[in-house]
Amino acid sequence: MSDALAIDQQVTGTAHKLMPRIWILVWLGLGTLVPGIIIPKTTHIPILNLTGGSIALGFTVISCTLFAVALLLVGLNRRYLGSVRHFHDSLDMFVQNDAAPTMCTTDDGTIIYTNYAAQKRFGEVTQSSMVLVLGKYAANPVNVIFRLQRKARLARYAQEDIVTTRGHLRLSVHFLNQKNFIWRLEDLVEHSNDKNATGPVGFAMLLINQDGRIQFSNAAMFTLTGLRAQHLDRLFLDLPLRSNGLHKIKTADGSILARVMVCDRENGRREVLIIPCDAEEVAGAATGRLFDDLPIAMLKLSAQGTILMSNRLARRLLGHSMNAQIQFSDLVQGLGRSIKDWLQDATMGHGLNKSEVMQATHTEQEVFLQVGLSRIIENGEIFLVVVLIDATELKTLEAQFVQSQKMQAIGQLAGGVAHDFNNLLTAISGYCELLLLRHDESDPDYGDLVQIHQNANRAASLVGQLLAFSRKQNLQPEILDLRDTLSDLSHLLNRLLGEKVTLLVENADDLARVRVDKRQLEQVLINLVVNARDAMRAGGQVVIESKNLKIIEELHRDRAIVPVGDYLSITVSDTGAGIPSDKVNKIFEPFFTTKKQGEGTGLGLSTAYGIIKQTGGFIFVDSAVGHGSTFSILLPSLTAPVEILRVAAPVIQISTAKEEGVVLLVEDEAPVRAFAARALRMRGYTVIEASDAAEALELLSDESLKVDIFVTDVIMPGMDGPTWVREARKMRPDVKVVFVSGYAEESFAENQAQIPNSIFLPKPFSLNELTSRVHKQIQ
Q1: Is the N end or the C end of the chain the one with fewer CB atoms within 10 Å?
Q2: Contact assessment for residue 674 and residue 701, using Cβ atoms and an 8 Å cutoff
Q3: Per-residue pLDDT averaged across 718-724, rounded?
Q4: CB 712 within 8 Å of CB 721
Q5: Phi, psi of 36, deg, nearest 5
Q6: CB of 495 within 8 A of CB of 527?
Q7: Structural domain of 17
Q8: The pTM is what?
C-alpha cells in the first residue's frame, strides 16, 4: 500500500512539473484538428496516394490523442495540489533550511513533517508523537501541548519559554487549519551539538513551583554549584528570593554571591536565572547585608505595594519568610480602610510619616505593629519604605485599660443595684419584724412571717456577693489563726466535694495571723473548692496548703504589683481538666464561666477576686489543660500585735423599755423611712422625718427645735449625708450621728472620719439593730 502511495505521489509530482508542456499539447491538438476540418474529402494527393478524407481522419485521431493526454495530466496536477506531498513541498520552500527545528503535527500531536534541523536533533520522528519529543524538555509535555494548541486556535499563534536541562527553549506553534499545527523550537541559550557533552554553556537556571520546590535545574546549574538540590532552602542561604537581587548560593566548595532574576510563568511556576557576581557586585552586597542587620524592621515596597526587600527583623515581626513576591496588604490587617488605597496615597505624597497600628495576619500569636511610611525616588521610579515597630505591648496595655474601665463600670452598676436592693430588703425585713412583734409562735401566720424574714436574709447574702464583686461590701475584719478556720471549714468542704474527690489540708506549723473577714474568706475558699470539684467529673484530689511567704523583691504578675513584705499564702490545687490558655486571663471577669450553659453563673471567681482585693490581698491562677489548676491567695500577715478595729455586732435582744430623745430621720426611700420612724417611735423616741438634706436643713433652721441625734442615709439625691451633716454641725455642733447606707463603710470612711461622734449602720438592718445603735449614741 505504501509502494502504491509512493508511485501515485511520484506520478502526480511529475504531472505538476509537466504543466507547461501540457498546454503545448493542447495547442498542438487544436492545430492538428483544424486541418482535418478544412481539407475537403475529395482532395487527392498523388505523392502520398492519399485522398482528402484519409488525411482529415488522420488529423482528427492525432488531435483527440493529444487532448486525452492533456486532460489526464490536468487531473493529475489537481490531485497533486490537494495532496500531503504538495503541502510538504510547500513547507520545504520556507522551513527546510531553517536553523530551528520545525515540525508539522496533526491535532492529536502526530508528527507528519520535520525539517532538516529537526531530523538532525531528534532523528526520524515522522509518525511519532510530539509528546515524546517534548518529553525530553518539559516536565509535563501533555499540558504544554494542550495549552499552546488551545491558545493558537484562538490567536492563530502562541509561544512559551521553558527551562530545560540543556538550556532555555522557546516553543512556538502556528495554527494552519483544524487538523494541522506547525511547531518551532528555538534555543535561547546556545548548547553543544555533541550529545555526549556534559558542560553546556549558558546561565544556570531553575524551574520552581509555588512552594519553592525545584522541578528542573539545567546542567549549567549543576556545573555552578555541584549540587542536586530539591528545594530552594537547600540551595539559597538568604531566602526569600528577590528578583534582580543578590543572594548567597550554597555550592559544593562553600558559598558564592550571585544575582538572581525571577520570572513568573503560568500555573504558579517561576523561572530563576542565576548569574555569578563580579567584584563590584560583591562589594555592593555588603550594603544589602547591612540592611538585613539593621536593628529596625524595614521593608521596601513598589508603588503597587509589592514587597521588594525585607530585613530580618521585618520577616520575624510579620511571621513570613517572603521567599516570593507578596503584597504588603496580605500580611497585615485592621487599618479600617483599604491598605492598597493607603499605600497609593503614600506614593502620591499624602499621609507620609504618620504611623498606623495594624495586626500581623501570619503570626501564631497576636502581634500588633505600628507602621510608618516614607517615599523615595530611584531613577525616576517611586518606592515606599516601611518602618515596623512592635506595638503588641502597647496594644495589650490599651486592652487592659479598656478592660479596667469596663470592670469599673460593671462594678459601679453592681454596687448601685446592690444599694437599691438593700433599701428594698431593709423595708421587707423591717416590716416583717414589725409583724413578728404582734404574733407569737402559736399564731398560724407566724411560720409564714419567719419564712419571709429568712428569705429576705438570703437575698441580703446574694446582694453581698454583688457588693463583694464591686468591692463595696461591708467587711467585719478580725484577727484569725487560719489553721482553726480551715479545721472548722474542712467538714463543710468534704460534704461539698462528695465521695469521688478527696480533700487534703496542709498547714505550716508557724503560720502567721491575718486580719480578714472570716465569713468572706470562707466564701472564697468554698467557691474555689466547688470549682475544683466541677473540674474533676471522674474524681480526683483537692489540696489546700497554707504557709508563710516573704517577698524580698517587688513581684509583677498578671497586671498586679505585689509589694515587698510578709504574706500568708493559701493555695487551692486540683487534678482536673485545667483551663485553656486563651481563657485563663478571663476567669475573674464577671459572668464569664468555662462551665456548660446553665451550670455556672460566672460570679463565683469574680466575687472571690473582689473579696481578696478589698481585704488587701492578691489572687492568681496557674493552669494547663490536662494538668489541673492552682489558685494562689496572698494575704498580708501580721508580724506584730495590732488593735482589732472590728466593730462587734451588737447582741440583739428584744426590749420593751421606752427611750427618750429626739431623732431627725433623713431618708429618701419612703418605705425605709417609714419603717425606721415606726421602729424608733415604738421605743419611745420622738422622730422628725425629712425626705432629703434640703428639708432637713430647713427644719434645723428653727432654733427652738431640739434634736438629740441625726439618723441619715449616706447616698441621697442632691446633697449627700456627710455634706449636709457638716453643714448642720455649724449650727448644732454637739448632735451625734448614725450614718446608714447600702454601700460598705469603707466607701465613705474618709468623710465619716471628718465628722466626730458618728457611727455607721449598714443596710439591710433590723429593728433592734437600728434602735440599739441609736440608744448607744444618745447615751
Answers
A1: N
A2: no
A3: 87
A4: yes
A5: -65, -25
A6: no
A7: 2-82
A8: 0.39
